[in-house]
Amino acid sequence: MKKIASVFLFLAIVFSVVVSMGISVSADVEYDVTMNPEYLYKDIIDAVYDEFYNFSNYYEETETTDVDYDFLIEIDLSHLNINVDDVFDIFRTLFCQYPEFFFLDGWMSASYYPDTGMSASIYFRTAYHIDEIPEMIEKFEASASSVLEEASKLKTDLDKILFVHNYIVMNTKYNQEVIDGGDGEYRIYTAYGVLVDRDAVCQGYASAFNYLVRRLGIVSDYVISDEINHGWNIVKVGNYWYHLDATWDDPLYDYVGKIYYDNFLTSEAKIIETGHKGINDKRITNGTSTNYNVSSTRFDDLFLHNETEFRGNTAYHNGKWYFMMNANDGYAYICCTDNVFVTQSQLSYDVVVKCTSTNDIPGLYIYEDRLYYTKRSGIYTCNFDGTDETAVYLPSLASGERVYGLAIREGSVFFNIEKNYNTANKVHPPIYSCKITPPVPNSNATFSQSETIIWNIPYGTKASEILNMFSDDCYITDISGKKLSDDSVLGTGYMVKLNGNQSANLFLTIAVTGDANGDALINGKDVIRLKKYLKQIETDVIYSLCGDINGDGKLTDADISSLVEIVYN
Fold it and tell me: Where are the beta strands (DSSP E) in 127-217?
């Protein structure tokens, strides 16, 4: 059974004493942690939030122990009049509600004034060296922001919940060391393990889900069962709570790109059917145990729960969910719908493209504005309407072998090759990978014009191809003003000069896809130039247009990554 970390369940508190000696402690504010946790958040937790990132307040712990830690964080509570008995609730609240404090190791001590019983300071201990933490925070926030940027584009809270669930399952592998009976590194129990390392256990899965959906304005919490030593989430949709266990929706052993939905938005009765027990052990909120009513069966009969008909995973693009469905002809088809939160009988969908056998584990992924999917023979791609189907990678397969699953990360495709799906829960299938070369628009692409800039010009386009766009006399010059011959290759910054009736003496600037420095070549210099634009060191709009590799109308890190792939592969 998947384990929950003891660091969450057993939080050590060590109290020391501060003698007041005439120290004045303010009595202006009194906090009732149990009755008013939201007030607690606002006036205490949020008040000290910045202290965790003010590393000058950390000091090295010299005490010799067998615990791997480096620094203590001291936060002054003396002005808040908090009873020392309530400090533990604050501590639990911190760990339950703020997964971004992944760098704390679960230990706490507190000092207090013996004559009043009020807290003086609270101390936390870091799990990592102080020099490591700023970079870890930066990586954590960068990863979370990339997920939240995409999730925020979705229409409804339900769509966003499904997107986050899919992201966590698709991109996280349940820690192998824990599977084999070990304890694993501390970070696997945190949201950092999911968002940065892509390697975690149930506590990490649940923490990452809480962190992401809360940033999207969705209410979510922990459920912990001591009986099965496991933790997961409950999430609020409208006025009702639902169980969601991303950990148990991630296959063991890990299959690339495979997502289950058995534990997605279920009632209490439904999730008990999947093997969850001891649900009433603990339901953690605001640092205390709380019972929730999770009786709504609204989503218990979602077609996503039907493994006979529904296959693989779901992927979102431009208002539609894409998924695979089995058909009577023995094949699975990629389909799309506006709404996946319906029953099988209510589902309305369009068929996009024929995919693979119903006996296989299909893979489906959206990357660079195209569908990518598996057939038995390899990896394929097509447009969202099923046109332009192309083989991306066809591995050399032995007799009886077939390709399973699919995930794409940073320009690489990951997939499994296996003979028999029945071994899924017995032997970990090998994971293979191949590179995707991001497409550069071909010479037949349609050019675009934005005011005085002609853009979406494919790399390698010749002057004659631009000249054919215009009926009146025109010619093209390079940056120095020299007139080009018809077979000259264009570069960014070259000028089209129009004369005659069409537009007297109108100058149009050229932006060639990928060529950021105007030398009609694509190389490392262009990567550097575009990075400067992205960081606003350069601000000319032409660099944004020539750097728009994926054609979405803007320059982003994804375009830079695509250009790097083109240059160095």
Answer: 173-174, 199-200
What residue has token string 């209410």? 219
Pick the closest to residue 559 from 435, 407, 440 (CA basis). Answer: 440
Distance CA 370, CA 524 (A): 26
Q: Are residues 157 and 292 in the same domain?
A: yes
- For 72, counting Cβ atoms within 10 Å of its Cβ (0-12 exposed, 13-18 middle, 19+ buried), the class is middle
Please give the residue range of the domain that contains residue 39.
6-132
Question: Are residues 290 and 226 part of one domain?
Answer: yes
pLDDT digits (tens, 9 = 90+) for 401-450: 888 888 887 778 888 887 655 544 445 567 777 776 544 434 444 577 76
Number of domains in the chain: 4
Between CA 8 and CA 141 the distance in angstroms is 22
pTM of the model: 0.69
Look up residue 447 and give its DSSP letter.
P
Assess contact for 508 and 495: CB atoms under 8 A. Answer: yes
For residues 217 and 272, membership in a common domain is answered with yes
**Nearest Cα to 549, choosing from 455, 453, 441, 446?**
441
Token pair for 90: 């604050």
pLDDT tens digits for 476-522? 888 778 888 888 888 888 888 765 444 445 678 888 888 888 888 88
Q: Are residues 143 and 285 in the same domain?
A: yes
* CA gap 124, 94 in Å, rounded: 11
Q: Would you state the structure tokens that stand for residue 144, as one six-digit string?
A: 């979370």
225 and 263 fall within a common domain: yes
Give pLDDT tens digits for 291-337.
778 999 999 999 898 766 676 789 999 999 999 888 888 788 899 99
Q: Which of 414, 435, 456 is the last residue of a domain?
A: 435
